Amino acid sequence: MEELYSKAETLALRRKHIGPSCKVFYAKDPLKIVRAQGQYMFDEKGEKYLDCINNVAHVGHSHPYVIKAATKQMELLNTNSRFLHDNLVQYAQRLTATLPEKLSVCYFVNSGSEANDLALRLARQYRGHQDVITLENAYHGHVTSLIDISPYKFNQLGKDSKKEYVHVAPSPDIYRGKYREDHPDPASAYAEEVKKIIEETQKNGRKIAAFIAESMQSCGGQVIPPVGYFQKVAEYVRAAGGVFIADEVQVGFGRVGKHFWAFQLQGEDFVPDIVTMGKPIGNGHPMSCVVTTREIAEAFGASGLEYFNTFGGNPVSCAIGLAVLDVIEKEDLQGNATRVGNYLLELLAEQKEKHPLVGDIRGVGLFLGVDLVKDKQKRTPATAEALHLIYKLKEHQILLSADGPYRNILKFKPPMCFTMEDAKHAVETLDALLTELEEATGMKTENNASTNVQCKRKTTEESSQPEGASESIGHMNGAACRQENGIYSKKRSVPSKRIRT
Predict the structure, then answer these.
(1) Average pLDDT, the chain
(2) How does DSSP assign 107-122, residue by residue?
């Protein structure tokens, strides 16, 4: 396929015409991707890359069944939802069938940000309350209302950037958080923190509209809340007149394998009041949805203000959404997420035993994180090392990203057609690069003896609070990657400038 511009010309035109805050992957040597199929992406030279990060192309890049459904409907009609059309109601029916019964009313929109913004409107209209509780390191979208409730973003703007109606609860992270894996009941302990926020807010004469959380934090560092946490938080929030919003934009549609929705990992006794979904819903087509209860929907309608979205729920989008649901079912992609995810988890767990740089492996299905550390006991984030590995993996034509408050967590969230062979190839390459990096820095020699002992037993040392753990980490989101890494020789320098991958 002949390209209109060379890679250099494309980059120059991008710099000229696209806003400078719109970043690219691998800023020092960006990829020019011209096509993709399944779990692979191809650059302008025809080089093939294994995509381990694209949770948008959920059922695989350029899936023929999805393309056919989109093309067929586009040839017939595309219009807005003020006209009756079967695709809209059929899709709403199919989608709500995957959810608990009380979640039965849909609002179709076009992006995860639109969905979360609308969810806030629904929550605030429901009881007339305004305040929102969010989690440390959370990210919920790019529009103003969501930047305001996303510490992952607003902490970069300075200490006075948090709005008075926003309250930040500790992330329920049992590896790096306030209550760790050695705590007898971290779910209750973290939920009590939310209860304290509610009580303090009420003392100040304010009222809680909503608690919002990703069912598993993505930008926050692949954090899986302990079972029971959401139930207790929902109890406290509802008692205060608020609602529970489960953000499934990153992790929904069977990615966790055993369940269709990640909030279901908490147990059958937990049902959120509002669920938002996006990214994977259209396999790359811009669409999203908010699903809520009849009671909340009627309260929203009682304002007398019509809700209309020009493109939300159009026949083409709904045809695509239906096709994605078909493929997930027909190709058993939930089952694949379980099988391949478990295998990938096992392979990565072996790396934890083997490498002093690997502090923690966590995840469910095809949503996994590798927490890199300089010291397993202190759990010191290995930020520069993570960035180095991302670039080295790219050289081996494997695409992976790093995230979390310290940018030290390698994120696996590939298309759902990812195979065991792909998992093996990715981890074998990572293994070799970790070995090379540890040998180059002397880390293998210095830490090998203590690491072997540490990895083979559960010790109170490994789960103890590291130095400075009580300090807030939100403010380090923008600074951690700019710190000088002192363990590298001049010959093997590792880039320390922050990159958004």
Answers:
(1) 89
(2) EEESSHHHHHHHHHHH
- Rounded CA-CA distance 464/273 in Å is 36
pLDDT in tens, 81-129: 999 999 999 999 999 999 999 999 999 999 999 999 999 999 999 999 9
What's at 103, amino acid-wise? L
Backbone angles phi, psi at 360, to 5 degrees: -155, 145
Query: Which two three-digit tokens encode residue 474?
Result: 């939100």
What is the percent of the chain where pLDDT is above 70? 88
pLDDT at 469: 32
In this structure, what token pair is assigned to residue 476? Answer: 């380090």
Number of H helices, E strands in the chain: 14, 16
Q: Which structure tokens are listed for 16?
A: 């000229």
Between β-strands 131-135 and 358-364, what pairing exists: parallel, antiparallel or unpaired? unpaired
Per-residue pLDDT tens digits for 118-173 = 999 999 999 999 999 999 999 999 999 999 999 999 988 987 899 999 999 999 99
Return the DSSP state at 330. H
How many Å apart are CA 301 and CA 294, to the nearest integer? Answer: 10
In angstroms, how far is CA 457 from the centroid of its own chain? 31
Residues 6+ apart with CB under 8 A from 211: 132, 133, 134, 169, 194, 233, 234, 237, 242, 243, 244, 245
Q: Output the pLDDT for position 445.
A: 52
| Cβ atoms of residues 437 and 388 within 8 Å | yes
φ, ψ of residue 264 to 5 degrees: the values are -70, -15
Q: Rg of the Cα trace of the chain?
A: 23
Closest by CA position to 320, among listed 157, 108, 490: 108
pLDDT at 293: 98
CB-based contact 414:366 (threshold 8 Å): yes
DSSP code for 286: S
Question: pLDDT tens digit string along 160-211?
Answer: 899 999 999 999 999 999 999 999 999 999 999 999 999 999 999 999 999 9
CB 501 within 8 A of CB 185: no
Q: For tokens 């103003």, name the residue.
A: 144
| Torsion of Cα atoms, 444 then 450 then 455 then 456, to 10° | 130
Question: Taking a C-beta distance cutoff of 8 angstroms, is the pair 426, 434 a contact?
Answer: no
* Closest C-alpha among 106, 52, 58, 54 to residue 254: 58
Amino acid 428 reads E
